[in-house]
Write a structure and sequence with these properties.
The chain has 520 residues and is mainly alpha-helical. It has 18 helices and 2 strands. Strand 1 (92-96) and strand 2 form a beta hairpin. Helix 5 crosses helix 7.
């Protein structure tokens, strides 16, 4: 039996197991049963298409049809998007220019998902623009200005066709994701459903990652060759010479996998009151934590710690929760020291372990060289900084410059102005989430959303300082920023107590913020 068929069988079995276990918990009061199983069926169909198509463009044609139909008939396209975000690795290929231009643009799974699901949703939301919730518009302005700056800088430095292509990418990859997230997730009910859909999709990836680590088998590794594309991600990665495999599931990189887990964990914590089975909730949390561990990625581990400190360190009873977290970490470390496996794991820890210490040296050199390059164009940077003579000493054996710091990449590409706008976007939504988190007495559910998203975004900000914004990383942080801008700002501006809704609200009452969905 071909390896890709074996991989498909394993992925399908894992997904069916997760969907079956989660259904009684999530279809009680969060997701309508019809939407739940339709999303599950489409997840399985899109995944099967990726493994069986045998050609990337055949996959694109079939998947586009499935995703477009699913997005049109789903009551909450944002939740549908979140559920299928990681169903397939974001591998892609360029659309030929047929002699007119070299190529039009590169299409990958994430862009296909945005075009098929988010673009129709955005058009419908735009029709309701006069009904938008009043509130702070600073995040909108900061992101729009940042994206325009990137386009202008590219247009001034590179060929016009490259600038047009960059503008299209900025719209599809950033603005469209943020726009739909911020305009559709505007209340407690909508956020709860989107959070549940995201957690469900990420939990499937977590189980797959644990399977990969235990069997030494990357389940999505065959897709690149079977679909006939060159991706450059998703290959075997070990920590240290001859070290254990670092799991990545469909994300294409262990750091991205760990990043996904760090964002998912606070969302699962938010859903705890709505999940009636304590065992299932703890099982899901254990799976997410296990997947974070088997990535053997230090950046996500540090980001996860920062996320956890924010999640437990805000609100009533914070001191007790922080004490329990510290005791739990100390107990886990003590147990780890009792086994050879645990002692070996400690060698991978940042600041303590010695495995992979050479990466620390590279990051230091990257910072030093980047500062020298940035000094040549400090205000607006240069999109062609990779070709700068000063940057050539960073090229590695593969012939690439590994920009393992998103902040440095942003600063080099758009200068201090772009860096300020990017960081300002996060600071603006952090302020919204913080203010929403102060409503614990009058609106506990609103406060829970604020604390949840604040923990997630702090984890994001730590992790992107250790990696470039590759694969699904920017899609997720624009999602989170959009949720913060849309949901939190509904309650913050008026300073009036919000009458929180009960967790017992039925799935039938989960009225979407869209106009009536298209019916086939």
């Amino acid at each position: 039996m071909p390896e890709y068929i074996k991989a498909l069988i394993v992925v399908t079995a894992i997904a069916l197991a997760v969907y079956s276990l989660a259904a009684p918990q999530l279809t009680e009061a969060i997701i309508a049963k019809g939407d739940y199983w339709r999303r599950a069926a489409l997840w399985l169909a899109v995944t099967a298409t990726a493994f069986l198509a045998g050609n990337f463009w055949v996959f694109v044609g079939v998947a586009a049809l499935l995703l477009a139909i699913g997005g049109l008939i789903d009551r909450n396209p944002m939740a549908f998007y979140a559920a299928l975000l990681c169903a397939v690795p974001p591998l892609g290929s360029a659309i030929s220019g047929f002699g007119v231009v070299n190529y039009f643009f590169e299409l990958n799974y994430l862009r296909l998902l945005s075009l098929a699901v988010l673009l129709p949703a955005a058009l419908r939301l735009f029709a309701l623009r006069h009904q938008r919730v009043a509130g702070p518009k600073l995040p909108d302005a900061l992101l729009a200005t940042y994206l325009v700056l990137l386009f202008v800088v590219t247009a001034l430095a590179l060929p016009f066709t490259t600038a047009l292509r960059q503008g299209f990418y900025l719209f599809i990859d950033a603005w469209l994701v943020y726009y739909v997230a911020s305009r559709s997730v505007r209340d407690v009910i909508a956020f709860r459903e989107v959070a549940a859909a995201f957690v469900l999709g990420a939990t499937i990836m977590a189980v797959i990652a644990i399977f990969e680590a235990s069997r030494g088998w990357l389940l999505y590794a065959t897709l690149e060759s079977s679909l006939g594309v060159v991706w450059g991600y998703g290959n075997y990665m070990g920590r240290g010479l001859g070290g254990p495999l670092r799991a990545m599931a469909s994300t294409g990189h262990p750091i991205v996998m760990g990043y996904l887990m760090v964002v998912t964990i606070p969302l699962l914590m938010y859903l705890r009151p709505a999940i009636r089975s304590t065992f299932i909730w703890w099982l899901a949390l254990s799976v997410l934590l296990g997947a974070l561990v088997v990535t053997l990625s230090r950046g996500p581990w540090v980001g996860g710690l920062a996320m956890a400190l924010i999640a437990v360190g805000i609100g009533k009873g914070a001191a007790k929760r922080v004490g329990l977290l510290s005791a739990g970490i100390a107990a886990a470390a003590g147990l780890a020291l009792l086994s050879d496996w645990g002692r070996g794991l400690l060698e991978y820890l940042p600041f303590i372990g010695t495995v992979g210490a050479e990466t620390v040296e590279y990051r230091q050199r990257l910072f030093e060289v980047s500062i020298r390059v940035l000094a040549q164009s400090p205000f607006f940077g240069s999109p062609g900084f990779y070709s700068n003579s000063a940057a050539q000493e960073l090229r590695q054996g593969e012939g690439i410059i590994d920009m393992v710091n998103s902040y440095l990449g942003i600063a080099l590409g758009s200068g201090a102005v772009g860096f300020t706008l990017f960081v300002g976007l996060f600071l603006s939504v952090i302020l919204l989430a913080w203010r929403a988190g102060t409503y614990a007495a009058t609106a506990p559910q609103v406060a829970d959303i604020g604390r949840t998203l604040l923990a997630a975004v702090i984890g994001i900000l730590v992790i992107i300082g250790t990696t470039s914004s590759i694969n699904v990383i920017p899609s997720i942080y624009y999602l989170v920023v959009g949720w913060m801008a849309g949901c939190c700002r509904k309650y913050v501006p008026t300073n009036r107590p919000y009458q929180a809704q009960s967790y017992s609200v039925s799935a039938a009452e989960c009225t979407p913020t869209y106009p009536p969905p298209f019916r086939m």
